[in-house]
Inverse folding.
């Protein structure tokens, strides 16, 4: 399976940060044939086969940072590190507007402790407690629905010299990044099951903006490629918007 060789990827990511003032963003998740990433929100479901799991760890090692929402932390309690291949751990980044991050999170066992991006109104006592566990809490601007502003987040990550960011989910995070048009490339593994559960991509804003949405309004995968990996299908490519 040919993806961009690692050296060229790293150079591309550095150029991207310098040019756009934000990291190169890769969206990556595992879904069933019908687009489900979990059987229902808040419950983990391992969809990837062994070969796909190695791919996820290879992707993690190639990126400077890995991001998930607090929903994924609470549901899956992921380590967010590299275990199945030899490689460096990415910096874990968690979006958590109300500092619900649990002290029992497995991310606290990593050599790189998490950076939590939260909002101005988050509880200061809770921040102090998290700081004693080595967590860095960063307060950023909020959106109108009191969530972490993704543009501000990426600006802050670029400031911390993060060139490449792997966004692993869950559904709300994937949808927000797509709605803000902040996805540069994607990798999806498709496993041959029908789950009928939580869809990876929820409602996109462009489907409401016009009465009869035309296909061109939706994010398009350019130059996509695919490959069979064990029982899964891997699809990857870059993302563009028609009017961008
Ligand atoms: N198959 C896969 O590859 C995969 C990968 C990851 C997760 N999952 C599954 O996905 C499910 C979790 O997904 P989820 O949608 O419930 O949660 P999520 O996307 O992991 O986290 C969403 C939460 O992040 C916080 N947040 C802060 N700023 C945000 C922003 N700008 N945009 C969106 N969210 C923001 C919000 O909580 P606050 O308001 O409290 O801040 C929001 O509810 C679990 O069942 C998990 O197993 C599957």
């Amino acid at each position: 399976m040919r993806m961009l060789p690692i050296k060229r990827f790293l150079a591309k990511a550095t150029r991207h940060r310098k040019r756009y003032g934000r990291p190169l963003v890769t969206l990556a998740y595992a879904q069933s044939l019908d687009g489900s990433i979990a059987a229902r929100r808040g419950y983990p479901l391992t969809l990837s086969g062994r070969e796909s799991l190695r791919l996820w760890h290879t992707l993690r090692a190639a990126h400077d940072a890995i991001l998930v929402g607090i929903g994924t932390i609470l549901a899956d309690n992921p380590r967010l590190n590299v275990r199945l291949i030899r490689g460096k751990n990415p910096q874990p980044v968690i979006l958590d507007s109300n500092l619900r991050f649990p002290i029992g999170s497995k991310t606290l066992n990593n050599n790189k402790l998490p950076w939590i991006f939260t909002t101005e109104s988050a509880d200061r006592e809770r921040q102090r407690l998290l700081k004693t566990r080595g967590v860095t809490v960063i307060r950023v601007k909020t959106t109108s629905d009191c969530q972490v502003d993704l543009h501000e987040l990426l600006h802050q990550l670029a400031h911390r010299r993060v060139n490449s960011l792997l966004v692993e989910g869950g559904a709300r995070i994937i949808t927000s990044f797509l709605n803000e048009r902040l996805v540069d490339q994607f990798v999806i593994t498709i496993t041959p099951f029908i789950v009928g559960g939580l869809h990876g991509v929820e409602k996109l804003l462009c489907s409401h903006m016009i009465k009869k949405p035309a296909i061109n309004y939706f994010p398009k995968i350019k130059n996509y490629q695919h490959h069979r990996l064990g029982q899964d299908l891997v699809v990857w490519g870059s993302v563009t918007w028609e009017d961008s």
Notes: The chain has a mean pLDDT of 94. The radius of gyration is 17 Å. Helices lie at 6-20, 50-62, 70-76, 124-132, 150-159, 171-179, 206-209. Residues 29-30, 37-38, 41-44, 47, 68-72, 75-76, 95-98, 100, 147-148, 150, 168-173, 176, 198 surround NAP (CB under 6 Å).
